Amino acid sequence: MIHSLFLINHAGDIFLEKHWKSVISRSVCDYFFEAKEKAVEPENVPPVLQTPHHYLISIYRDKLFFLSVVQTEVPPLFVIEFLHRVADTIQDYFGECSESLINDNVVTVYELLEEMLDNGFPLATESNVLKEMIRPPTILRSVVNTLTGSSNVGDKLPTGQLSSIPWRRAGVKYTNNEAYFDVIEEIDAIVDKSGMTVFAEIQGVIEASVRLTGMPDLSMTFMNPSLLDDVSFHPCVRFKRWESERALSFIPPDGNFTLMNYHVSSQNLVTIPVYVKQNICFFETGPCGRLDITIGPKQTMGKTVEALMVTIHMPKAVLSANLTATQGNYTYDLATKVLVWDIGKLNPQKLPNLRGSLSLQSGAPKPEDNPSLNIDLKIQQVAISGLKVSRLEMNGEKYKPFKGVKYLTKAGNFQVRT
Amino acid sequence: MDVGFSSLRSEAVGAMRMALVSAENLQLTLKPEPSQEEQALTNSKGSIKETHKAGNEDLKEMLESNKESLKLDAMKRVVGLISKGKNASELFPAVVKNVASKNIELKKLVYVYLVRYAEEQQDLALLSISTFQRALKDPNQFIRGSALRVLSSIRVPIIVPIMMLAIKEAAADLSPYVRKTSAHAIQKLYSLDPDQKEQLIEVIEKLLKDKSTLVAGSVVMAFEEVCPDRIDLIHKNYRKLCNLLVDVEEWGQVVIISMLTRYARTQFTSPWKEGAIFDENNDKAFYDSDSEEKKDTTEAKPYIMDPDHRLLLRNTKPLLQSRNTAVVMCVAQLYWHLAPTQEVNIVTKSLVRLLRSHREVQYIVLQNIATMSIQRKGMFEPYMKSFYVRSTDATHIKTLKLEILTNLANEANISTILREFQTYVKSQDKAFAAATIQAIGRCATNITDVTDTCLSGLVLLLSNRDETVVAESVVVIKKLLQTQPTQHSEIIKHMAKLFDNITVSMARASILWLMGEYCDRVPKIAPDVLRKMAKTFTAEEDIVKLQTVNLAAKLYLTNSKQTKLLTQYILNLGKYDQSYDIRDRTRFIRQLIVPNEKSGALNKYARRILLAPKPAPVLESSFKDRERFQLGTLSHSLNTKAAGYQELSDWPAVAPDQSVRNVEVIEPVQEWAPSVGKTKKSGKPKSADKFYSDDEEEKEEEGSESSKDSSSSSSSSEESGSESEEESSEESEKTSSDSGKSSSGSEKSSSESETEPKKKKKTKKAPQKKSKPPAAFSDSDENGNGPVAQASSSSAESSSGSETDSEDSDPPATPQKKKDVKSKPKAEVKSKVEVSLLDLVDFSPAPTNAPKSSVISSSLLSDLEGLSLSNISSTMQVTTPSFGPVKTYELLHHMTGKGLSAKYHFPRQPCLYEPSMVAVQVILTNSSDHSLEEIHIGERSPAGLNIHCFNTIERLEPEASVTVSMGIDFSDSTQAANFQLCTKEDQFSVSIQPAVGELLMPSSMTEQDYSKEQGKLLGMNETSATITMATANTSSQAISKQVLSVCNVGEVPSSQKSVHRFAGRTVSSGALVLVCLELKESSTALLTINTEKSVMASMLLRDLKQPLVQA
């Protein structure tokens, strides 16, 4: 299936290569570089490319290209999903997925890649299994290792690998047993220039951080499960229990993991927490334009809107911006033409406003289209769809764990057209 | 070779020691020729190595030292070199002797090295073999497994026999991990030596029988690689694979599902023939397998789905909830290729969910949706908005979304889509804007209703500032005109005028072609264009020149008096052109049109040749031809056949013997045989049902055996399937007891909280069932059958069939009870339709949405006007009378407003600012010759009037217009809102008086809720009138159109054809307004309005009467 993997940085240098079958010359990447050249923006590089003898499937993440070479028919999503898992694993191990970190830990990365695929077919991709085989680097461990000569590589077969619950290892022990769940909802919306909602939906995810001794069997129920329209689960969730009772029943992996993703049914009206009054215009006469943006709270369920931020990708012709913000700071990046207005907390008494003039490149025609605004925001302690966890129970172990559920609402892909 | 090798094995330890002494020597003692190769290799890479020489020497020393830590450091550096793609092969001898190291990490790194370079240093690699052979016998399964893994990864042909032996042994190992490794090794050995195929197939056959979930994925992978055509190996394992599928690791699931898709296409008959009939019946609610099954049988259709086919569909369905996008896609393609047509829809939601994932995932999923949406629009139409483009999307994502939106366009939604396209056309991404224009063109040809609207919209685009946009518009307009060339000479003239400003050659060529083709419609302009072209001919691009020659020829034939000289001039220019294509064309044209003695017979036909009516081009999706590939494959993504692509075969006309899949012996599957036997007794229709319930039972058992995990979550969904069947054949005592057993088995695990109240209900309702243990009633059964218990049995089936859906809407079970009470007095007539509608809620688009579009469409014209950037000539707007104008009201005439004119309309969307306000959109236009500044809202009256103003408009250029939205709280009265519209200099008093229908918001409710609410609003609160309807208005579509055009209400699904119900709430106070129109004989109708706002009711009645009475 997957023949080789090349890691390529933003500048187009190959800084790591790994082959699971016989070696393929790195010149195969030239086809990719050609496509990259053509695409201008790295996001625009087609994920699947064909070369005379190989097929190149790539992902672009954290300013790095993960380029895999395959020789025969394979579902492209299979490869893409795997490449993302590689990136996830690297991030999980080293805290970030960047060229310098990979270079610093090249041996660990190599060992990981070796374990993740055998002959191009995924072998161990569960982070729990991998961590038993190859321990993630910590400062303490590296000191101990240099002193004692012991290694980061486990010599036993990870227990998860064999059991029917590969995501959990046996013999987990904690002194403080705790299980925390974050219900995070994101609002995806497109609002047109007159303020009408063209499209809005809520996507949610439940992130879990579970540190429990032994083999706990958890079950979580919701006050209003009918809100959940479409769901996808971590493999640990028993699907049949969900089907019959709308309850999440699972033996959790150890540590952090995503328990479930969900989509809130579209019949429920999506409450848009803020409204935006904007007026951006460019004038034919005189090289300038005006910008005036006000943001106000709409339906915030009694909570404060925090971390409010507006990002605008300006047309190429906009040279500079001379604006005043009644609250927060704004920056205009001349190279990327991105205007960022970082507002912070939204005060309903005094609505934040950003206004001023934009200067255009002299001679350039007035931009035809106004840029759209991307809104970022956070509302703590509330899930905007109204989803609520009603109970979390634990079976199979005797101790009493600490349990906690936190709610958070964020703006996902929230766009205001102007 | 073998001899040398076996001696090597015995002496391995000694050899290692020798290697320690000197690797060079060893090479010589082993074999001379590879060492030559080696030298050649070394020489060729000499220059590169030179630079690393010092470092590598250093490494060699470290590797040969006695200290573990030094060795480990060295190996880490070596692996670092490998990862950078640098050559470290010369260290091979020094590295390989560490293969037996005690240090695990060191050993692993040596493995990495070995696998990388063994191919280049074959005989040195042999030194390590004996170590692995010993490890293969190790008591630790992990060591056995990894030994086999590395051994099989060493690509040295000489060890093929050893590998073969090791694989065979490992395939019989007790540890599933080792067996899994052996399955992987099969593929490696096969690629090393394809001659081993026969022996390997034997191993595969053996491993396929393995019941461990760990092995299943890997062995199917090996099967796919080594012998994908040996379908016969699958037969006996088919059911086991289906049943294991849920517990297999995710990557294995992908492989197994794609293999089973291929398998199913060879073994089962097509479920699609009947599907087409179902589609027409529009029985979308009947997703569930079993009800569908019964439908087949009750209607005595010849097709009965093979139970194994059903098993596959049923067992893959839960995987749609996987977090792994590849698995979801794989299940989706399985349903697409295997499921009965009406069941395919269940994958839609999951596919749409994947669109939230990474960009690359989106790309692949969108490609597949594009292909699917060509064949089946209905699948994705409810999710149309998920395909709206965001400005931050990558270009290839944008174009794919556009493609899908175009595929989804139909009469009902075209206005919404076009409005969306209008935003895209203005995108800064010009490639995308051009693609949008193409898409508009496709919509225009596919949907004749909007052709004119699109065309005029495109014509407006011709004055766009951007060249690519203009060029693309010209090309698309050309195609559109070709489809209906009558009455469009205006547009052609307009394009001729623009001709001088267009520089893109494709666009110029298109205009020239249009001139030539329709020269009879523009007899005065065409020769003039030709004259201009004659001037610039030499400077034009080839494609333009060719069209110029064509134009000249056509004009010569139709209007030789004016153009003879011009044509000759152009032909002369063409004769000496640099391009031979043009010289060639000129020569041909000259012979064709200019009569002389040589030209002969062809000349007579010149006119018929050149001016033949040409068929209009068909604008088709570029994804049309991708259907030939299996969805989700690389080939589909690339639209070419990738190496190793396995075609999906067509369904066989007659199903091959299905008994081949029966497994006689061995525990869990054995129950199949008796179940088949039983069915024969009970006759055909029931056979399938029986078959299933047994199947479930057996699965249940197997599940509980395999892991404690799955037993505690035994499938209630599947159970309920069997349950519902039981329902249908209640008389059959035997069946019911059978499935009673199956469900009681699972009862332990099902929810304690919910069963209690339900049991009570059940016993009350159906006393005859008491004989059975209460445990036999599963939740879903209860839930689905609740309201319909007294209705016909067929409706009972249907409702239980869709149990999964209804469960969604069931949280506290109270609505269920309500329904229960209500449905009793209600006529039987409704029951069937009603229930399926209710259950459908989840899947189908809310029915209230449908009529909305007709309202939106009326405002389309104004939207498309927005396509123009600024001061587009008003003449063009006249050409599009096809849509009645929006109900736009004048707010301020430009004469009174000193150049400022304002219009407003009600967009009928919830107000952005405050829920109690009515949203109003105001279009301000500056029709004076100077710019207006600081347009804002001044004083208002009555004083307490709550208005949310728009932001002050700093400046409005002459001829420019701007749309702003405001919110006004009318407090549910039609009293006008008066306020002042101010500019920097002036103030104008204006007023907005809302029609009563605009003070409402649509409210969606079920029919039951409607009648309940209506019951509360009788007497004083009811206003009614009998009206005589215009005959044109009696269709339900026309009625809803008329009503919705008057007032902003939502349609309530109605089970009676003659009754139309609408519901809304007043915007400010939220009071319910119910409108009901009941058709009587001879086009009279009773119009009833129930609301506590009686003043509103009478006004609304008056407003509604008028359009309904008039034709």
From TrEMBL, chain A:
Q: What is the source species?
A: Pagothenia borchgrevinki
Q: Which Gene Ontology biological process is one annotated for this entry?
A: intracellular protein transport
* PANTHER family per UniProt: AP COMPLEX SUBUNIT MU
Pfam families named among the record's database cross-references = Adap_comp_sub, Clat_adaptor_s
Domain called MHD: residue spans: 176-417
Q: What does the UniProt entry say about where the protein is found?
A: Cytoplasmic vesicle membrane; Golgi apparatus
This chain belongs to which protein, by name?
Answer: MHD domain-containing protein
Keywords attached to this Swiss-Prot or TrEMBL record, sorted alphabetically, are:
Cytoplasmic vesicle, Golgi apparatus, Membrane, Protein transport, Transport
Q: State the organism's lineage.
A: Eukaryota, Metazoa, Chordata, Craniata, Vertebrata
One GO term describing the cellular component = clathrin adaptor complex
Membrane topology qualifier? Peripheral membrane protein
Q: Which CDD domains match?
A: AP3_Mu_N (cd14837)
Question: Has UniProt tagged this entry with the keyword Membrane?
Answer: yes
* Similarity section: Belongs to the adaptor complexes medium subunit family.
- Superkingdom of the source species: Eukaryota
UniProtKB/TrEMBL annotation, chain B:
- Lineage start: Eukaryota, Metazoa, Chordata, Craniata, Vertebrata
The keyword Cell cycle is assigned to this record: no
Query: Cellular component terms, GO, for this chain's entry?
Result: AP-3 adaptor complex; clathrin-coated vesicle membrane; Golgi apparatus
Please name the PANTHER family in this protein's record: ADAPTOR COMPLEX SUBUNIT BETA FAMILY MEMBER
List the GO biological process terms.
protein transport
Region (Disordered): which ranges? 32-52, 675-830
Q: Where is the composition biased (Acidic residues)?
A: 694-704, 720-730
User: Which portions of the chain have biased composition (kind: Basic residues)?
Assistant: 758-772
Which Gene3D superfamilies has this protein been placed in?
A: Leucine-rich Repeat Variant
Under the heading Pfam families, the entry gives: Adaptin_N, AP3B1_C, AP3B1_C_2
**Record's InterPro entries?**
AP3_beta (IPR026740), AP3B1/2_C (IPR056314), AP3B_C (IPR029390), AP_beta (IPR026739), ARM-like (IPR011989), ARM-type_fold (IPR016024), B-adaptin_app_sub_C (IPR015151), Clathrin/coatomer_adapt-like_N (IPR002553)
Which of UniProt's keywords are assigned here? Cytoplasmic vesicle, Golgi apparatus, Membrane, Phosphoprotein, Protein transport, Transport
Q: Which family does it belong to?
A: Belongs to the adaptor complexes large subunit family.
Annotated ranges, domain Beta-adaptin appendage C-terminal subdomain: 999-1109
| Ranges of Polar residues composition bias in the record | 37-46
> For this UniProt entry, which residues form the secretion signal?
none
Q: What is this protein called?
A: AP-3 complex subunit beta
Note the topology in the membrane.
Peripheral membrane protein
Q: Please report the stretch or stretches of sequence annotated as the AP-3 complex subunit beta C-terminal domain.
A: 830-975
